[in-house]
């Protein structure tokens, strides 16, 4: 194309097609629901099933730690997925990249459901599990950023946080779906049957959810903001290089600002499930049901935080939620450590409520920090690098701290991450009135 043909062409083009609100909400919500369902299925199995089937040991704690170490692999893979899918998302388009990321995540999850165990394949079994776990994280590394951009780049300027919370709602929805299925299987099967083949069912059912997600997403048009940038030839050759050249500091601060999000969630879900069943003496069905009730507080807080962020700004809502997360951390010993069901529930509900408050605005806040031509890469990298800092070793570290120093130290660890996120947030700008063009 000649230097003069671009402007002439763009003046004759019709406006990019817009996507209806309902379709945007469904596409951003269904995708992350599926992705987080897949992720939580693995998280639950990593505590309940994988220690015995893939990492057999005479020491239960050692087996659990080995299983949780594979849980961390996906968080290392997520920034890699962010760079890969972000490259195409910023050069080719949000829609196509989102479909590809969903396929990678879904296929990896289904294949976990047909893996041989250590008893039949020896050390090959955990090796294959690690490869597929990497695939899960690689796909999710491209999923979240695309879903967040799908929502925010289709939103009216004064409703971006409310739209941006739709992909965030996929987290509690996927969690409830995954854990409800595990509860049903566990109550309908004895332990031997569940360990033999019942645990595979949630992984295999992921195939049906992926088909549904693909059907919804393939009906979308490209976001108007990106379509305009593409028509004006604003795409860059290497988005990741441009991201670090122009916004490297923002990527780093953004990653630390979401550190609490991951630590809070995976301590109140994955680690607490291990602690509750192995130390406090709850049955897995009972504790999973408690978590399903508690995550409803997260589901309620997420849209609330989106509405508040559009009204008062992203940073005030995020800062308030981070302070709340720190308080939950300091109360871990007295509440969760008590072992009393009522106090344990208060800790779980409070933790997941503040998780929803800190999680909701991020769907708009991180994309708003980056220009259109590197927004997919920048937002994805910040969000998923935060997973390494806040979640990759959180369950593993918590098991070690609780075993060596007591459960109260897990809370101090949580409060410390809240302080780090709060300081990072203070160094970032407010984006409520920022333009996405």
TrEMBL record:
Highest rank taxon of the organism: Bacteria
Alphabetically ordered keywords of this record: Cell membrane, Membrane, Transmembrane, Transmembrane helix, Transport
Topological category with respect to the lipid bilayer: Multi-pass membrane protein
Presence of keyword Transmembrane helix: yes
All copies of domain Major facilitator superfamily (MFS) profile, residue ranges: 24-433
Transmembrane segments: 39-56, 62-86, 98-119, 125-150, 162-185, 197-218, 250-267, 287-305, 317-337, 343-366, 378-398, 410-428
Any Pfam family hit: MFS_1
Compartments, record wording: Cell membrane
PANTHER family in the record: INNER MEMBRANE METABOLITE TRANSPORT PROTEIN YHJE, SHIKIMATE TRANSPORTER
Protein's name according to its UniProt entry: MFS transporter
UniProt organism field: Kineococcus endophyticus
Upper taxonomic lineage: Bacteria, Bacillati, Actinomycetota, Actinomycetes, Kineosporiales
